[in-house]
Amino acid sequence: MFARLFAPTLEVSAHCDLPCGVYDPAQARIEAESVKAIIGKVADNDDPDFRTRAILIKEERSQLVKHHLTVLWTDYFKPPHFEKYPELHTLVNEACKLASGTGTKADFDEAKADELLSKIDQIAEIFWETKKS
Amino acid sequence: MFARLFAPTLEVSAHCDLPCGVYDPAQARIEAESVKAIIGKVADNDDPDFRTRAILIKEERSQLVKHHLTVLWTDYFKPPHFEKYPELHTLVNEACKLASGTGTKADFDEAKADELLSKIDQIAEIFWETKKS
Amino acid sequence: MFARLFAPTLEVSAHCDLPCGVYDPAQARIEAESVKAIIGKVADNDDPDFRTRAILIKEERSQLVKHHLTVLWTDYFKPPHFEKYPELHTLVNEACKLASGTGTKADFDEAKADELLSKIDQIAEIFWETKKS
Amino acid sequence: MFARLFAPTLEVSAHCDLPCGVYDPAQARIEAESVKAIIGKVADNDDPDFRTRAILIKEERSQLVKHHLTVLWTDYFKPPHFEKYPELHTLVNEACKLASGTGTKADFDEAKADELLSKIDQIAEIFWETKKS
Amino acid sequence: MFARLFAPTLEVSAHCDLPCGVYDPAQARIEAESVKAIIGKVADNDDPDFRTRAILIKEERSQLVKHHLTVLWTDYFKPPHFEKYPELHTLVNEACKLASGTGTKADFDEAKADELLSKIDQIAEIFWETKKS
Amino acid sequence: MFARLFAPTLEVSAHCDLPCGVYDPAQARIEAESVKAIIGKVADNDDPDFRTRAILIKEERSQLVKHHLTVLWTDYFKPPHFEKYPELHTLVNEACKLASGTGTKADFDEAKADELLSKIDQIAEIFWETKKS
Lengths: 133, 133, 133, 133, 133, 133
Hints:
The structure is a homohexamer. The first copy, chain A, is mainly alpha-helical. The first copy, chain A, has 6 helices and no strands. Chain A is elongated, with a radius of gyration of 15 Å. The interface of A and D includes residues 16 and 21 of A.
């Protein structure tokens, strides 16, 4: 399934609100992968200064996840998408909450990072379906 | 008059994703007022360099509107709010689109700025209702 | 109640250095309220990671207070204002220091946050007086 | 060749200088695709305000390309990589210049965007080779 | 010559609001020099896209001037300095206005850039006097 | 003394990628001085909250060092410079690594800050040589 998700990267794209028409859920995923990696690194390192840096950087990376997801939600997805995928609002909202102060920003919980990645993959799946149609 | 202006600040609040619990739709409204004022200023000034600066600054201010609105949507509003106000997802999404590359970023259209302000007021109305309950 | 809250927004305004002519001391106040709320939250929570996040976010919010205050000082207030209110320079300068590394950034001292809020209210009072005249 | 380049995205990753160990040249490529798309959009649209917005956004996206490339150069690539790939310094430097004020920032030249994309692909190829070994 | 250039760096300093104690008016001056250079470049280049880029970049650099000056005013200068140099508030305020929407941001006027540089030099002179005492 | 300090500012310069032609290695040095000062301050202060703030600010300042150095590397230095100074790529790369997660960001090691300052001085020496020729 992962392979299928990333197969379409031929159309790889970003967002700029010109709009340039270039969007890609990979941007959110990359930052979420980073959040997960940070959590793993802290588990292996008991230096308190390292933990402080990890908190600070996890904060930034989680924020980037939220940024990339809200870009998709506000700029890429259009009313027909929300009609066709009625769960889409909730899905993006839950993913953002998972990258917020009640989510990956709050602690070093790998399960939350995994849940976030899973939500991003669900959003990506919808995204690529809409690109095909 | 000053007292009246600042009386409501007891509930006034910002956002910081600690979360500090401080949110205020006024932040989005202030930036949208700025967008509208920029449009008015350009109507009264035919210096092309001024127009360029206005485009650039309108871009930033519209972006801030989107930022403040998505903060409310991802961090303040919770599942019970979305249940009670089923139009809320669409409302925030439409407001953000009005501040995007297909909205106030795109041109100098005062009607779009007014529509954006009106959506922000609808969101604020819901916001303050949820604060009371 | 909503009407009362938003009644003053006719004058509500932000800053953009076009200049759009839209300024509002509420922007500084909202961030200072957030700083105060953060201090309160830390008092109720002894998780060291939470404290680290609180320090980091308090830093950002204090910086935003300084930003919004210096915008008023450099862009909104003009020579006649400084003549009419000779204490204004010192007032803004002291407020900024209260949001600096010797102020709310330095520790979790609610008294400092209150003092900062009080200074912002004094600046706001002058601000709204100048808007009336 | 492109497929090969992007096949390894199983390890998809970002950068955070913890370092989290997560890097991915796709981040630079996505922004460069956006730059190219902006150039194409301007060719199809003769509204001067649109052109102004395109210049401004192209500036930002080009800057992001430079950011993501210098992250790879300063943080991911290590002395053994530079020894094994002696052209790597020049390659990254040239790619950055192609995204600078003498490159895609300067004008709306699709050939420059293509050249930039091609350099990024060469960097990515080296990157993925180093990941395999 | 190199030695001479870098000899003064013993006192050279930046700002970080720890506070680290490192401040240097050169930071504001460098950005103001950049603003002046941009104005000169536009005078020699009649490409309208170049002019657009120049406006956008002049905006950023002028903003950096304001940032560095307000850092000195809010963080470095203390009450005894303001007492000893009663013109200091006005001097910094005027310099910031010269880098604002009524100053170098507004147009391509080399005289304004020169006036800004002159004010920065006056601030720097006071700054270095306070460092000696 | 003031005259001597500011005498070299004729060549003083920043970077804006217009490009404005204004560059100055002092920008990187000032931030690196700040990093060193932060390390010294932490050695004299055992408040854990102060240490947290120091980590966070040291992170930002180190990042600014990297930013200013990569600007020189990508925008100021041209192929003839790299030919004439074959060590230049490695020098800048090593300096950036010294300001990264394996350098001054990682811990409070004054020796690393000194090594970083020394590398910046070597880059500056080459820089000023190229300006003379």
